[in-house]
Specification:
By secondary structure, this protein is an alpha/beta fold. The chain has 4 domains: about 210 residues, Rossmann fold (3-Layer(aba) Sandwich), CATH 3.40.50.300; about 140 residues, Rossmann fold, CATH 3.40.50.300; about 60 residues, no CATH class; about 80 residues, Helix Hairpins (Orthogonal Bundle), CATH 1.10.287.380. Helices cover about 40% and strands about 20% of the residues. The strands form 5 sheets. It has a 6-stranded mixed sheet with strand order 5-6-7-3-8-9, with helices on both faces. Helix 5 links the parallel strand 6 and strand 7. Helix 7 runs antiparallel to helix 8, helix 8 runs parallel beside helix 21 and helix 14 runs parallel beside helix 15. InterPro entries: AAA+_ATPase (IPR003593), ABC_tran_C (IPR032524), ABC_transporter-like_ATP-bd (IPR003439), ABC_transporter-like_CS (IPR017871), ABCF_ATPase (IPR051309), P-loop_NTPase (IPR027417), Uup (IPR043686), Val-tRNA_synth_C_sf (IPR037118). Its EC number is 3.6.1.-. It is found in: Cytoplasm. Keywords: ATP-binding, Coiled coil, Cytoplasm, DNA damage, DNA repair, DNA-binding, Hydrolase, Nucleotide-binding, Repeat. Pfam families: ABC_tran, ABC_tran_CTD.
């Protein structure tokens, strides 16, 4: 099928910042019916490229084409409310000049997004400001929408509503987003801004990582044929990003087992409670809530936040909290952690809890401090991680920093790098319970992958408030859904499991807080693996054992806190070898998971 005629396009466009080309000779186009996403590393120029398309930045070279009369609407990451006395005024500015008197259109879109038009836009919360900006983008019925991180600060119901709107949208759409579930559902074409150029594929975002790996592999082969070294940047991209996105087999299996254990406790009766109580004497209990309730008086009467809710959270549990903004997630979190008393019911907290807290505001960094000082505030070159000393250079590599940045000031770091540094500092502090309040807001995909990896290995208890469905699916053992009006229920598994198990909307109120039963599994087909796949499956365990031994040996070498100071070249070489072996192991584990899942699917229906 021929691509749609472009409504807007870039031809040979280049942009230079500070004498350095950000990107050069870029060609891309957006046509009617296009649903494309723009992906790339943080700092690669995605937002700048989108602003060039929107006409907000003039390129240093090339041309920007827009069909005469076409309407282009741009959603920035940070809306500018300058000169707008009310939200209504701000949204009305999104109408074409000859349609500014059609106030009913503004009222209609504000009503759909539930933002009061009379409010001063400068007083809006992050979620309200994002909905107001979306209203301004949608109100003018544009021919092309350019959306930069549209789901940031939105709650799940609003994200799902936005997905439906964009699926039905007939114009051209270009998205920048870190929300994988959002992109998987919407993006039918992928544009990858990589090292100053744009690569394009007609595959959707769901196939991006496969395509990315194919590109890296073909480039490596081409480089080897030319008998030259792979550039350091190329190596970082291939081994750093791709390896981190390949999910660790042991971690996936551990999460599935944790979910099974959590499901049994959520459904369990008296016998299970007795077994838990016995284990709690050793400090296994973290939080126990028994029939708690909480409400507040307001101008509209009594507002119920929590009604007759019980849960027991044990060491190692990872609990996600979801629900609309204003439903009471933060209040429930404060009650569960002892920061707020319930009106009725009881809360019991475990002993010796050491809590680390990561909130939406992000604890600040001194711009003059170096990375070394942030991670080693009391001097020296060692960071204590899980009770073990790590050289700061090795530890910062875990968070995607180059060791040459060790003495770089915070003010020289990009936004994504600062977020990674905050995470590195957070995880270097001793804790056995971590509370994360919307940690994925404003994170680029590299940092989001890193956060997921670190949390996947965290041995403590995790309470996570998030709107990121993919993030929840990959991390949590159970999901507490705060539906509003006091209705709260807990479901084993992640967000996708919640969708399967939750009662139909009309039954939610009378069913809560009864715990839902897991859905019955679909019938499995009969069959078996091919001879080739079975041989590969049989050989993989020995290969993984060998790679694991090699990784362990290299990790032991790097555990020497004096290695970097004694022999920096050996430290670098060992680090590179470790990354390569970890990448091989991750790929083998992922393949084992795929083949084992396929075998179970094929053979599970027998008999």
């Amino acid at each position: 099928m021929a691509p749609p005629a472009p409504i807007t396009a870039l031809q040979g466009v280049s942009v230079t910042f500070g004498g350095r080309p950000l990107f050069e000779t870029i060609d891309l186009s957006i046509g009617r019916g296009d649903k494309a996403c723009l992906v790339g590393r943080n700092g690669s120029g995605k937002s700048t490229l989108m602003k060039v398309l929107a006409g907000m930045i003039q390129p240093d070279g090339g041309t920007v084409f827009t069909q005469p009369g076409a309407r282009i609407a741009y959603l920035p990451q940070e809306p500018d409310f300058t000169g707008c006395a009310t939200v209504h005024d701000y949204v009305a500015a999104g109408l074409p000049a000859d349609e500014r008197d059609e106030a009913h259109r503004v009222d209609a879109v504000l009503d759909r997004l539930q933002v009061p038009g009379h409010l001063d836009p400068n007083t809006l919360s992050g979620g309200e400001a994002r909905r107001a900006a979306l209203a301004r983008t949608l109100v003018g019925a544009p021919d092309v929408m350019l959306l930069d991180e549209p789901t940031n600060h939105l709650d799940l119901p609003t994200i799902e509503w936005l997905e439906e709107e964009l699926l039905a949208y007939r114009g051209g759409l270009l998205l920048i987003s870190h929300d994988r579930s959002f992109l998987n559902r919407l993006a039918k074409r992928t544009l990858w801004l990589d090292r100053g150029t744009v690569r394009a594929t007609d595959r959707g975002f769901a196939e991006f990582e496969t395509w990315q790996a194919e590109v890296f592999e073909s480039e490596e082969i081409a480089a080897q044929k030319l008998d030259r070294k792979i550039e350091g940047e190329m190596k970082w991209l291939r081994e750093g990003i791709s390896a981190r996105r390949t999910r660790n087999m042991g971690r996936v299996r551990a999460l599935l087992q944790l979910r099974t254990d959590r499901a049994e406790r959520i459904k369990g009766g008296q016998q299970a409670k007795l077994a838990v109580a016995e284990a709690e004497r050793g400090g296994r209990l973290v939080i126990e809530a028994e029939r708690i309730a909480k409400g507040f008086d307001s101008a509209d009467g009594r507002k119920t936040i929590v009604k007759d809710f019980s849960t027991r959270i044990l060491r190692g549990d990872r609990v996600g909290l979801i629900g609309p903004n204003g439903a009471g997630k933060s209040t429930l979190l404060k009650i569960l952690t002892g920061q707020m008393e319930p009106d009725s019911g009881t809360i019991r907290l475990g002993t010796n809890l050491e809590t680390a807290y990561f909130d939406q505001r992000r604890e600040g960094l001194d711009p003059e401090d170096t990375i070394r000082k942030v991670l080693c505030p009391f001097g020296g070159d060692s960071v204590m991680v899980n009770g073990q000393p790590r050289h700061v250079a090795g530890y910062m590599r875990d968070f995607l920093f180059d060791t040459r940045q060790l003495d770089s000031p915070v003010k020289a770091l990009s936004g994504g790098e600062r977020n990674r540094l905050l995470l590195a500092r957070l995880f270097a502090r001793p804790s056995n319970m971590m509370i994360l309040d919307e940690p994925t807001n404003d994170l680029d995909m590299d940092t989001l992958d890193l956060l997921e990896d670190v949390l996947g290995d965290y041995q403590g208890t995790l309470l996570l408030v998030s709107h990121d469905r993919d993030f929840l699916d990959r991390l949590v053992t159970s999901t507490i859904a705060v539906e509003g009006d006091g209705v709260i229920a807990e479901y084993p598994g992640g967000y996708s499991d919640y969708l399967v198990q939750r009662p139909p909307p009309k039954e939610k109120e009378k069913a809560a807080p009864v715990k839902a039963k897991p859905a019955a599994a679909a019938p499995k087909p009969k069959g078996k693996l091919s001879y080739k796949d079975q041989r590969e499956l049989d050989d993989l365990p020995a290969r993984m054992d060998k790679l694991t031994a090699e990784v362990t040996k290299l990790e032991s070498a790097l555990a020497d806190p004096n290695l970097f100071a004694r022999d920096a070249a050996k430290f670098q070489k060992t680090s590179d070898q470790l990354q390569a072996k970890q990448s091989e192991l991750a790929a083998a584990e992922e393949r084992w998971l795929e083949l084992e899942a396929l075998r179970e699917e094929l053979e599970g229906g027998r008999g």
